[in-house]
């Protein structure tokens, strides 16, 4: 049913959900069962002879599945390796296996059906798609960091963010403004990259490189901030000013002022008396 919708984002969500479910199961499996599952993916792995670590895994299998992880512990240079085998714990082995599961499911979902589905299934697929489309924006927001206050976004950033959620193209200046604003507001590079996945020209390697560069994790190690309001208006990014916009000159200044306004309003809201 998910495959028939032909929606890349829905397919990724489904594959990720199945992978998370597999991870919770794998963590409880015995070493022998985990080894058996790993062999199904043609891994070169075996239980370690010592108590710790739990497994040894050939570095090619390790690298193939750890490239998307960005914590320091997943860098090969930080691992103990002997004769081409990396030492991994049970939990780490399960986490790496989950990547195999996720990729496997995504590939299966991209397989062409090559047949006409019965009307009963077609109608269910249509209801699934409609439900998904009605919740798509909310689903993306749920994946974002909780510390960011979306209601405090300036009009330009809200418009850019909504444009991305709808999968529509935005200019280079718009992408830079949105990425630098989100990073300076506290969003991680991983979440910024995920936000851009709905675009038709999405390239994860390039998007991640640009986001890390803006965050100061690459190049000159300079953390960039969004362009000033005058620059955004010049490039047609500004959708129109509200009352706060008329008193500031920068999107981040808008965000800080709006945050204070929201916090003040919350503090002044009277609480209901206890019964």
Q: How is this structure best described in words?
A:
With 275 residues, the chain is mainly alpha-helical. 55% of the residues lie in helices and 5% in strands. The protein folds into 2 domains: 2-109, no CATH class; 143-268, no CATH class. The chain has helices at 2-5, 8-26, 31-40, 59-66, 90-109, 119-142, 155-165, 172-184, 189-195, 204-214, 229-234, 251-268; strands at 45-47, 55-58, 81-82, 85-88. It has a 4-stranded antiparallel beta sheet. The chain is globular and about 65 Å long. The protein starts with a helix and ends in a 7-residue tail after the last helix. The relative contact order is 0.09. Residues 271-275 have low confidence and may be disordered.
Describe the secondary structure blueprint for this structure.
Blueprint: H1 2-5, H2 8-26, H3 31-40, E1 45-47, E2 55-58, H4 59-66, E3 81-82, E4 85-88, H5 90-109, H6 119-142, H7 155-165, H8 172-184, H9 189-195, H10 204-214, H11 229-234, H12 251-268
Antiparallel strand pairs: 1-2, 2-4, 3-4
Helix pairs in contact: 2-5, 3-5, 9-10
Short description:
This protein has 275 residues and is mainly alpha-helical. It is built from twelve helices and four strands; from the N terminus they run αααββαββαααααααα.
Order of helices and strands: HHHEEHEEHHHHHHHH
- What is the CA-based Rg, rounded? 23 Å
In spatial order, strands of the major sheet run 1-2-4-3
Tell me the domain tally: 2
Task: List low-pLDDT spans.
Answer: 271-275
**Biggest β-sheet description:** 4 strands, antiparallel
- How many strands? 4
Q: Name the overall outline.
A: globular
Overall helicity: 40-55%
Distance between the termini: 51 Å
């Amino acid at each position: 049913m998910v495959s028939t919708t032909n929606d890349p984002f829905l397919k990724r969500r489904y594959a990720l959900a199945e992978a998370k479910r597999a991870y919770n199961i794998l963590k409880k499996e015995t070493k022998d069962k985990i080894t058996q599952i790993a062999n199904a993916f043609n891994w070169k792995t075996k239980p370690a002879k010592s108590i710790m670590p739990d497994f040894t895994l050939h570095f090619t299998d390790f690298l193939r599945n750890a490239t998307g992880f960005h914590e320091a512990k997943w860098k090969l240079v930080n691992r103990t390796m002997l004769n081409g085998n990396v030492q991994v714990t049970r939990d780490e082995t399960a986490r790496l296996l989950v990547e195999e599961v996720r990729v496997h499911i995504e590939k299966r979902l991209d397989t062409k059906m090559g047949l006409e589905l019965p009307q009963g299934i077609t109608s269910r697929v249509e209801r699934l798609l409609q439900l998904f489309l009605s919740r798509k924006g909310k689903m993306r927001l749920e994946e974002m960091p909780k510390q960011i206050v979306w209601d405090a976004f300036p009009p330009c950033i809200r418009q850019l963010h909504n444009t991305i959620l709808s999968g529509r193209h935005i200019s280079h200046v718009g992408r830079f403004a949105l990425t630098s604003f989100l990073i300076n507001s506290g969003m991680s590079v991983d979440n910024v990259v995920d936000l851009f996945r709905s675009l038709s020209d999405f390239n994860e390697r390039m998007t991640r490189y640009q986001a890390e560069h803006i965050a100061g994790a690459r190049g000159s190690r300079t953390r960039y901030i969004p362009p000033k309001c005058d620059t955004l208006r010049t490039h047609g990014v500004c959708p129109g000013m509200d009352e706060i916009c008329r008193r500031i000159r920068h999107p981040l200044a808008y965000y800080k002022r709006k945050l204070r306004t929201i916090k003040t309003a919350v503090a002044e809201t009277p609480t209901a008396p206890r019964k």
